[in-house]
Amino acid sequence: MDQNAGSFLAVRRLSGGGIVHHHHSHSSPAEVVGVSTAWIGKGLSCVCAQRRDSDARLSFDLSRIQEDCLQRLQKRIEVQYDSSNLEHQKALKALWRASFPGTELLGLVSDQWKEMGWQGKDPSTDFRGGGFISLENLLYFSKNFPKSFQELLCKKNGDRALWEYPFAVAGVNITFMLIQMLDLQAAKPTSLIGAVFLNLLLENDRAFDILYCITFKLMDQKWLEMHATYMDFNSVIKSTRRQLERELLLEDIQRIEDMPSYRFLAR
């Protein structure tokens, strides 16, 4: 995973409904936020906890089924977007159809992609930070929560900023942030947040995709609450991450759908 990914494209909203694109660079997503070290016992065996100032690193033994579940997700994370792969091309075309039904796509390299919030004519150049799973996340969102997807894509809700976050690039950043927050490239969970999420993944193998949808919707709400503009994107992502961590540590969260912010998603 590229630690320096995160080239950002702001979108200026015009009174007539059109959009103008503007390039901007921001720092890497979301700093590490400390979480409670109280173990709430959800099926993983905590074998050690070493305190270092305010940070705690935990280590968990996994059962074979837990290992398999985590490894399946890790295999998805490892796949880079390949513009020559026909399946990847098919997924990108499917995302266009879900985003703009009835509008013909002129090509996989086209200025049309800027209307979705990609940085240029070729969306494949924006997958560096998130890989193919970031496209899968967007596609899952569009198919399973189409109402919320369209609201965010078209910036339908709230008093929007003059310079808006670009939908698609923000989505890639969210995928990257979640992978970092949950430490999903480690062989086993090294934080309480990661351990809790693994249990949710055992309950539903699409938990990461659903968490992505929750995060995107929550991020947009934070954006509106903070009256943010594109310069504030990193602050919004950090605030979103802290909210996610608080919700994941609630004791009554047994399924990904139990997260309080899940209720904001609309089909």
UniProtKB/TrEMBL annotation:
Residues 87-248 form the ELMO domain. Pfam families: ELMO_CED12. PROSITE patterns: ELMO. InterPro entries: ELMO_dom, ELMO_domain-containing. PANTHER family: ENGULFMENT AND CELL MOTILITY, OS04G0545100 PROTEIN. This is ELMO domain-containing protein. It comes from Urochloa decumbens.
